[in-house]
Write a structure and sequence with these properties.
The complex is a heterotrimer. By secondary structure, chain A is α+β, with helices and mostly antiparallel strands. Chain A has 9 helices and 12 strands. Chain A has a 5-stranded mixed sheet with strand order 3-2-1-5-8, with helices on one face. A 5-stranded mixed sheet of chain A has the order 4-10-9-6-7. In chain A, strands 11-12 form a two-stranded antiparallel ribbon. The longest helix of chain A is centred in the N-terminal third of the chain and has 32 residues, at 30-61. Chain A starts with 5 loop residues before the first helix and ends with a helix. By secondary structure, chain C is an all-alpha fold. Chain C has one domain: Cytochrome c oxidase-like, subunit I domain (Cytochrome C Oxidase, Chain A, Up-down Bundle). The chains are: A alpha+beta, B mainly alpha, C mainly alpha. Chains in contact: A-B, A-C, B-C.
């Protein structure tokens, strides 16, 4: 094999030894998706073979040399019905199977831990509830459902984790979610798969899947000291949310304790389930989200809080089960200036 | 080939004295006219789809930002809008008269109708320009100069109490309303301008007697176009001007 | 190998003195022509020009992807190159390819008319095409555009500073050219059929163009208004798609794909029409289940309008709407399956020969089957999540568009070349080209399925090194494919002067276009035919020949 350049040779050998047609299966859903992929591939192969066989067989049997005169045939309703109904049936099986998977991938279990992800040109910023910030990487524990709440602060991005077989678009102006449960320790690709401008192909990173112990250690070693909810609490105070949302009987805004997950009736008679997206909209576009019985007096915070700041507020409100601390804060007449300054740096938009 | 077709045509439709306008690839005038008007209707269908995209957007945003749409709509002058509707319907009438004159070979009537239609078209665009001008002065044109504050603190107009102000977040959504307002009326106006260019062309041709020999397919089909533009406005007027006017 | 080719005696045969090519002379007689055949030739020249520009850009893309780093060009140059490749290939090649050339040339003849209903509008559509194409080139020369052919907002409206407005207007204008072509076809098919030419006597080529025309006429205006809104948003800053102003970028996706999904059927349906003609001719047999094939074209057109959301399954649309659109996507796959099997069974008990058009048609059937079946992978929402936005998508639509449509286009060009020019292309070298194209194509695009399965995202200028080998395969294949496309270009031009005289009906085919002289007269028919025979009625053709013989005898 001297006539093959050694570089190419090594190249091929390396590729053949690592040959794979699918990425590693590193999440709970991955084998399920792969099962459907295998099924579809088999059906496709059978279909393709069938077509190829028909064409070659007929081409050989009925070539002009063997069959100089064609027999004219109009068609056959029976045959045509066959190849209408069988593909239709197969496609419907794939439809049902695929839809089951789709609902599974996009319906997070209630016990999932939440990580917030902001996409921007050209990086991924992950915010862990414990206050860990990451850029272009994501650390997750094994065996624990993880829900990602995604948003983009500029253009469309797409959070793609091939090893987990999940992907979700990060869209400006609204939250999207996806979840997975990692099953294999390791480091896997994280791609932005929606074209997002000049450095689209540099918007890549790693997902690091760790054992629960390692994950705990990582959490401790990389925390910024202020959890997301704590940061949210500071923002809540510095943006003067406490002035109205304090749970007092004469409060001008509704109490936010235990509001997350509850059903609200709005002033226009609509009923809504309070989730992350609702909270975000209520902060940015309050007048369209007035709880019944309250006046539309809340100002909009659009342009004043960054997406990370909104994440902090959402995380804070999620965990809010009493108004005790809010009332404590409003009772003291002055805040510590240091805290206010810090919270401004953490979550508000710098001028 | 052509002479054969023409001869055939003579035999069938003797009232067409000069079928010189029968184009060579049609068998008969009847086929030609049917074909042309079918093509026109199909073209109008594409126009429906063209405006349909904007109507879809309108439908969605009106549902989302209803208060902003109400507030935006109330800044439009219902008087000017109504006058313009009247102007356009009248122009449709004069256009229909034009088609009738062409069919009955009244050359003078045709020219007068077309000129009237053209004048009414100018009147419509003139009124529209006045409205645009006002929006420009109020900073209601979307873009860098847009200012939503006049919806947060509305001024009282002469003789009328001020409308209640919108919260800032909803007031900002009036920009979406005005985006649609300008996109929809702008596209409509563009169709008017194209129509008026064709009208001018037809007036010149009619003055030279171009429609006096039965070749009036162009006038008829232009009439369809003009009525279509009119109908678009009949939809735009209530959707943009008359939101929640009963309050 | 036997052949059905029957050429006149070359020593005595002449190209008819009077035909549409020689009818008038001078460049103006071409530029101001109303003749659908001449306009088809004008279109053929211009789309070939744009095809080779788009192809050169594809070559640059493949060269850059030879290595994992972005070393041949900077990433933003790469982005401009793939954007331009997409825009040129989709709007300036694939959409007009078969309809504007073969469709323009053949539809009036096939229905027995002297011209399309609106010859001037037909010419106008070519000028609009040129204006759109020229503007696109202008945008490319003056700095390019880097939004991808999909113009995703808010990237296209607020975050790039390249020639989005120029390109948007270019596509807007080219879109009208497509609308006018479609409109002309529909009106012609409805109103200009020859006496006796009922709907179910029309060739399937006409049926599939009818279906594609419906999509052009109803879909393209929506794209037009969407682009207008994008341009307005970029120039004066209206807020319809801008999330910062309360607009919704998802609405852009809906409107864009409302056109751009049907657009893939605009691209593939005319190709299917070509395949029906070619397979029937070279199997000497009527198409198996004529009405099923005809109706499946219409079914594709109708269902094609209601599947656009499958481009948005991962974009945060409601899970339940995904359910509906995924189901409809599965339904639209069925008519394509019906067609494939009907074509296969057309061969059954036929008398088959293997000239170049037939080889391309076989290529089409194989590649389109793969392209179609992989489409089901993407239509099934659960697997779409993993595969979308990766090279799997790229491979899928290249199998359908290039493996399907381009194969069909080349098949049709070879098939009707004798009719258009009066001369034959050289058979042996063209068979070689067909085989090279098939091999090169599979080499280029099959590795991309694997890349996609592995998760390599599309539109990446640089990629992780483990994907390199498959990319090298793909680039190697692309160079073979390039040869496969250059060959026809060369020998077809050669054949214009040196090709054998074809005679009226070299393939012994049944279509009306084969019963007139090649190249045809400007008015197509000396006398408008009265149609009594079905489409693909080979017995009728035999009787005609016998009749002629007895008359001459």
């Amino acid at each position: 094999m001297d006539h093959i350049s050694p570089v190419i040779w090594q190249f091929l050998v390396k590729w053949l030894t690592d040959f794979a047609v699918i990425p590693p299966e590193a999440s709970k859903i991955a084998p399920q998706v792969d099962a459907l992929l295998v099924f579809m591939t088999l059906v496709s192969l059978v279909g393709l073979t069938l077509v190829a066989l028909l064409v070659t067989t007929f081409s050989i049997l009925y070539r002009r040399e063997r069959n100089p005169v064609a027999t004219q045939i109009e068609g056959s309703t029976l045959l045509e019905a066959t190849w209408t109904i069988i593909p239709l049936g197969l496609f419907l099986v794939m439809f049902v199977w695929g839809s089951v998977l789709y609902f599974r991938i996009y319906t997070p279990p209630p016990n999932a831990m939440n990580i917030y992800v902001v996409g921007k040109q050209w990086m991924w910023k992950a915010e862990h509830p414990g206050g860990q910030h990451e850029i272009n990487s994501l650390h997750v524990p094994i065996g624990q459902p993880v829900q990602l709440t995604l948003i983009s602060q500029d253009v469309f991005h797409s959070f793609s984790l091939p090893a987990f077989r999940v992907k979700r678009e990060a869209i400006p102006g609204r939250y999207t979610t996806v979840w997975f449960e990692a099953t294999e320790v390791g480091t896997y690709h994280l791609f932005c798969s929606q074209y997002c401008g000049t450095s689209h192909s540099a918007m890549i990173g790693n997902v690091v899947v760790m054992t629960p112990d390692d994950y705990k250690k990582w959490l401790e070693s990389s925390t910024s000291g202020v959890s997301l909810a704590q940061n949210g609490e500071r923002l809540f105070a510095s943006l003067s949310c406490t002035a109205c949302h304090n749970g007092r009987p004469d409060a001008r805004g509704p109490s936010l304790a235990n509001v997350y997950g509850s059903k609200l009736t709005l002033s226009n008679g609509e009923h809504v389930q309070v989730d992350d997206e609702y909270l975000r909209q209520a902060i940015l576009n309050p007048s369209a989200h007035i709880t019944q019985g309250y006046a539309p007096i809340m100002p909009t915070y659009q342009g004043q809080i960054s997406e990370e700041g909104i994440f902090s507020l959402v995380e804070y409100i999620k965990g809010l089960d009493s108004n005790y601390r809010i009332q404590q804060t409003t009772n003291t007449t002055s805040f510590s200036p240091a805290v206010t300054a810090k919270s401004a740096a953490e979550g508000t938009v710098k001028p | 080939m052509d002479s054969h077709a023409i001869a055939l045509n003579h035999a069938e439709e003797p009232h067409h004295d000069h079928p010189a306008h029968l184009r060579h690839h049609f068998v008969s005038l009847e086929q030609q006219n049917e074909t042309v008007s079918f093509g026109m209707w199909l073209f109008l269908l594409t126009e429906v789809m063209f405006f349909g995209g904007m109507f879809t957007a309108y439908l969605i945003y009106r549902n989302w930002y209803y208060p902003a749409f109400v507030a935006g709509s109330h800044t439009l002058s219902i008087v000017l809008g109504t006058v313009n509707t009247g102007v356009l319907i009248t122009s449709s009438f004069t256009m229909a008269m034009g088609v009738w004159c062409a069919e009955t070979k009244r050359q003078k009537g045709l020219i007068v109708s077309l000129v009237l239609t053209l004048i009414l078209g100018f009147a419509f665009l003139g009124i529209k320009a006045v409205e645009y001008q006002e929006k420009f002065e109020l900073h209601h044109v979307p873009g860098a100069h847009f200012d939503a504050m006049s919806f947060v603190h509305p001024k009282a107009e002469a003789g009328q109490p001020a409308e209640p102000g919108l919260p800032l977040d909803m007031a900002r959504k009036t920009e979406v309303y005005f985006s649609l307002y300008f996109a929809m009326t702008g596209m409509h106006a563009l169709h008017m301008i194209i129509g008026m260019a064709l009208l001018s062309f037809m007036i010149v041709k009619a003055a030279r007697g171009g429609y006096s020999h039965g070749n009036i397919a162009f006038v008829e089909n232009f009439g369809l176009y003009w009525h279509f533009v009119d109908i678009v406005w009949i939809f735009l007027f209530p959707l943009l001007y008359l939101i929640s006017r009963h309050q | 190998m036997s052949t059905i080719l029957s050429l006149p005696d070359q020593s005595t045969a002449r190209i008819p003195k009077r035909n549409y090519l020689t009818n008038e002379n001078g460049i103006l007689s071409w530029l101001l022509t109303g003749d659908h055949k001449r306009i088809a030739i004008l279109y053929l020249i211009s789309i070939t020009f744009f095809f080779f520009i788009g192809g050169a850009l594809a070559g640059l893309i493949r060269l850059e992807l030879l290595t994992p780093q972005s070393d041949l060009m900077a990433t933003d140059t790469y982005n401009k190159v793939f954007s331009m490749h997409g825009i040129i290939m989709v709007f300036l090649f694939l959409v007009p390819s078969v309809p504007a050339t073969l469709g323009n040339f053949l539809i009036p003849i096939m229905v027995g008319a002297k011209d399309l209903a609106f010859p001037k509008i037909n010419l106008l559509s070519w000028y609009l095409y040129l204006a759109g194409g020229g503007l696109t080139l202008w945008a490319m020369i003056t700095g390019g555009v880097d939004t991808g052919w999909t113009f995703t907002t808010p990237l296209s409206t607020h975050y790039v500073n390249t020639n989005v407005v120029t390109t948007g207007l270019a596509i807007f204008i080219a879109g009208f050219s497509s609308i006018f072509t479609g409109l002309n076809f529909i009106v012609t098919i409805h109103r200009m059929r020859a006496p006796g030419m009922t709907w179910f006597k029309m060739p399937l080529f006409v049926w599939s163009h009818y279906a594609a025309s419906i999509l052009m006429v109803l879909g393209t205006p929506v794209l037009a208004i969407t682009l207008v809104l994008v341009v307005l948003e970029r120039t004066i800053g209206i807020g319809i798609f801008d999330p910062a102003k309360g607009g919704d970028p998802i609405l852009f996706q809906h409107l864009f794909w409302f056109y751009s999904h049907p657009a893939v059927y605009i691209m593939i349906l005319p190709g299917m029409g070509v395949i029906s003609e070619v397979i029937s001719t070279f199997a000497r047999k009527r198409v198996f289940g004529y009405s099923a094939v005809a109706f499946s074209s219409v079914a594709i057109a109708v269902f094609g309008f209601f599947v656009w959301e499958h481009h948005m399954f991962i974009m945060g649309v409601s899970n339940y709407s995904t359910l509906v659109f995924s189901l409809l996507t599965m339904l639209v796959a069925v008519p394509s399956a019906i067609k494939i099997f009907n074509w296969a069974f057309t061969l059954y008990k036929g008398s088959i020969t293997f000239e170049t058009p037939m080889l391309y048609a076989f290529g089409f059937m194989g590649l389109f089957t793969i392209g179609g079946l992989t489409g089901v992978f993407l239509g099934s929402s659960g697997t779409d999540i993993h595969l979308t936005e990766t090279y799997f998508i790229v491979a899928h639509f290249h199998f359908v568009m290039v493996g399907g449509m381009l194969m069909a286009f080349l098949s049709g060009i070879h098939f009707w070349w004798p009719k258009m020019t009066g001369r034959m292309y050289p058979e042996k070298v063209s068979q070689l080209a067909a085989v090279i194209t098939f091999i090169g194509f599979n080499f280029t695009f099959f590795p991309q399925f694997l890349l996609g399965m592995l998760g390599m995202p599309r539109r990446y200028a640089a990629y992780p090194p483990e994907f390199q080998v498959l990319n090298v395969f793909s680039t190697a294949g692309a160079s073979i494919l390039g040869v496969g496309y250059l060959l026809p270009m060369i020998y077809l031009v050669w054949s214009l002067k040196y090709g054998k005289i074809a005679g009226d009906n070299p393939w012994q085919a049944t279509g009306l276009e084969w019963q007139i002289q090649s190249p045809p007269l400007t008015q197509n028919f000396i006398e408008i035919p009265v149609v009594t025979q079905d489409a693909y009625d080979y017995e009728w053709l035999e009787r005609q020949k016998e009749h002629e013989v007895t008359q001459l005898g």
